[in-house]
Structure formats: structure tokens, C-alpha cells
Design a protein that fits this description.
Helix 4 links the parallel strand 5 and strand 6. The longest helix is centred in the middle third of the chain and has 15 residues. The protein is 28% helix and 37% strand. It has a domain of 121 residues: Gcn5-related N-acetyltransferase (GNAT) (Aminopeptidase), CATH 3.40.630. It has 5 helices and 8 strands, in the order E-E-H-H-H-E-E-E-H-E-H-E-E. Strands 1-2-3-4-5-6-8-7 form an 8-stranded mixed beta sheet, sandwiched between helices. It is an alpha+beta fold and 177 residues long. Helix 4 packs across helix 5.
Amino acid sequence: MDRIEGEKVYLRAMTEEDTDDIIRWRNHPAVRKNFIYQKLFTRESHLNWLHSVVETGKAVQFVIVDKQSGKSVGSVYLRDVDHENHKAEYGIFIGEDEARGKGIGTEAAQIFTRYGFEKLGLHRIYLRVFEENKQAIKSYEKGGFHREGLLTDDVCVQGEYRSIVWMAKICEGRLGE
């Protein structure tokens, strides 16, 4: 099992045993409100994701563990992994209230994107974030992502049009180097 070490956190591959935590975190109102996909997670939907997406290599998902407490606090993932074009979409959620605002998400972004570049051979990792989610945008920028554009009124969430900031991080090396 892969384990990615950071200073404050380490990341470990998600397993079926993480299902209850993932569901609880992802359904937490402070987390769910920041996702484009707002439907509640269920045990069935998460296990379907795990078996049909993660285990088939279409996504890579890790659990974030706070080194100080030893507690699992959230998750990071790369989805829609495109091996032909060497790119994937990044996502993160910090599910434990006490873990937010401590730089855990920023460090997780830094070490997980490095993993994506070095171990998965990705060249481009991108993300989408609601324009009004200023705290996440700031964290992503600290994690090395750069704004590429604004998609005005791009999605309709609960009857309200929301604008999306498109961000990306590009691998500094060239393919084959």
C-alpha cells in the first residue's frame, strides 16, 4: 500500500474500511456545500465508487492522516485519470472540523500532486472550485495551483447558478525526461 509522507500529514490509500468516515465527512454540511455534486453519499454509492472507479484505476483516492493526532481527517483524490493526455482532476475534503484551517489541505495538495506527477506520470492536474470559496482558492494557490479561468454561471446548484474558477498545476519536467 502506498504511503505518502509530509511534514504535518501522511496520505495512505483508501480502503473499504474507510467507508463510514468518507460518508460522514462528505455529507458534512461544511464539506458538501463546496462540491458541485451535492447529493448525499450512501454506503452503496461509496462502495460503487470504490469498486468501479478507484479499483479500476479511473481514480486514485487517499486518506489524509494528521501526524500529530494519528487521526484520519479527510481525503484527496485524482479522478478522470487520462493516461493518454497525462492529466487528472484533483479533489480534496477535510472532514474533521478541528483539522480545518491548519494548512493540512495545502500540504496534502503539495504532496499528492507530486505523487501524481512522479508516480502516475501526469503532466497536468486541474481542479474546479466555486468562485466564492475564497479559503479553498487561497489554499490551492499555496499548494501550487494557478488560476486559468472563470466559468461564469457554469453550474446550477439547488436552483442557483454558480461560477467556477478553473485552476491547474503543471509538472515542471517534460515527458520522457
